[in-house]
């Protein structure tokens, strides 16, 4: 069985997902959910996202997409194309018995893989904030909300937020 492609992303009200190669907010609750949602799965990410994380994440396998030949990402798998990244992630998913491959960003990777993505685990962040990385616009004709949870804001959360699950309307 081919694993589902699932984008996991936190997005501000104005579509911002990053600034200066980092997150423009601190949401401890979202980081906990991210860990739980990605654990035991291969993750495809761009080089800048990999560098912003700074290390392999425990319990997951990272596939780093870069155009830089010979790029080294200790503890991760390196791919020089999206096609290669998907092939590596599918092999890893089979080895890990993972039902999903996570699309972990950044903006360029989300955009490039959006047509193949079947689900989006979205954290809607209650901020309108400046940034230089944006999540692509989603058409309500293509995506339907199938779950929403709005937990109370924790002590280490800088904003209100909701966890939203979106599914592609046809074939998701």
Describe the fold and architecture.
The structure is a single chain. Helix content is 23%, strand content 31%. It contains four helices and ten strands; from the N terminus they run ββαβαββαβαββββ. It has helices spanning 28-38, 47-53, 82-96, 107-113; strands at residues 4-12, 16-18, 42-46, 61-65, 77-79, 100-103, 119-125, 133-134, 143-149, 161-168. The strands form two sheets. An eight-stranded mixed sheet has the order 5-4-3-6-1-7-10-9, with helices on both faces. Strands 2-8 form a two-stranded antiparallel ribbon. The longest helix has 15 residues, at 82-96. The two termini are 14 Å apart. The relative contact order is 0.26. Pfam families: DHFR_1 (PF00186). Pathway: Cofactor biosynthesis; tetrahydrofolate biosynthesis; 5,6,7,8-tetrahydrofolate from 7,8-dihydrofolate: step 1/1.
